[in-house]
Amino acid sequence: MTWVESLQKAINYMEEHLLDEISIDSIAKQANFSAFHFQRTFSILTDISVGEYLRRRRLTLAAHELNRENTKIIDIAYKYGYDTPEAFSKAFRRQHGITPSEARKYAGRLKSYNRLVIQVSVKGAEPMQYKIVEREAFQIVGIKREFSCINQQNQIDIPKMWDKVNGDGTDDLLFRLNDGLIEGVLGVCVDKSSEVIDYWIGTTYEGDVPDGLVALTIPESKWAVFEVHGPMPDAMPKVWKQIFSEWFPSSGYKHAGIPELEVYSEEDPSSPDLYSEIWIPVK
After folding, report:
1. I need a surface site. Which of 35, 39, 228, 250 has the fewest CB within 10 A?
2. HSE of 221 in the Cβ direction (CA atoms, 13 Å)?
3. Containing structural domain, residue 150
4. Rounded to an integer, what distance in angstroms lies between the CA atom of residue 130 and that of residue 183?
């Protein structure tokens, strides 16, 4: 099964179980991904979380039913996973801009979020500069924090962690410790469960772990190393999207299932000539 087919199978599974309580683990299993990797891939491709996609689709179907059927609003609320009519009405209004009662009377416009279909991009996209390298297992040292992935809270908290590291001198220490195996400071996500990750800010370093830091071993792997050119924070997400929407579907490679690496240099992060890298483990 190809990469695109795997993702589409998971999306089809979500669509077939929109009226059920389904877990991210059961969805990711359809694509043969870890829960974390599936959520990350999905959000990069669509700019929304899995939970938000399910919510939008359920409220879209609820709006269709309000327009077509005479089912009581309270019964529609329960059908689409809301415990009370009040909770349903609040969520419905947030998405559509009108209440369920107004939708039934055709008093306003509705937003329809349609079923996703994953396709390979065949347009003339910008070229991607990358190389394939092999690395034996190596050690990074640095600091780590645990973050929740619920409602994409990690995307809010991780930048705050970087702000602290950049402000308290930890980044300067890591640049000094770097042994040159991968030049720069690394950002590394390690999934622990469907809801929690460990995020590391570290650098490659062999030897005894310095005081105040902890160590992580990155397993042996083949890596696709992508060049990232441009200022933060926009340049990195742009290349991530290209990797998952263009490169993976057409490359023949699959994700190897170990942590990915973002590599940052000592250059000014606002510089238009800033050079960074994304390392993707592949097989």
Report:
1. 250
2. 21
3. 130-282
4. 16
**What is the domain-level CATH number for residue 8?**
1.10.10.60
Q: How far is CA 220 from CA 37, 134, 142, in A?
A: 19, 8, 19
Same-domain status, 17 and 141: no
What sign does the CA torsion over 208, 214, 219, 220 have? negative
Report pTM: 0.83
How far apart CA 199 and CA 146 sit, in angstroms, is 6
Q: Which residues pair with 190 in a beta bridge?
A: 198
Which 3 state secondary structure label does DSSP give 75?
Answer: helix
Strands of the chain, DSSP E: 130-135, 138-148, 185-191, 196-204, 214-218, 221-229, 261-264, 275-282
Rounded Cα distance, 148 and 156, in Å: 10
Let me know how long the chain is: 283
- The CATH number of the domain where 216 resides is what? 3.20.80.10
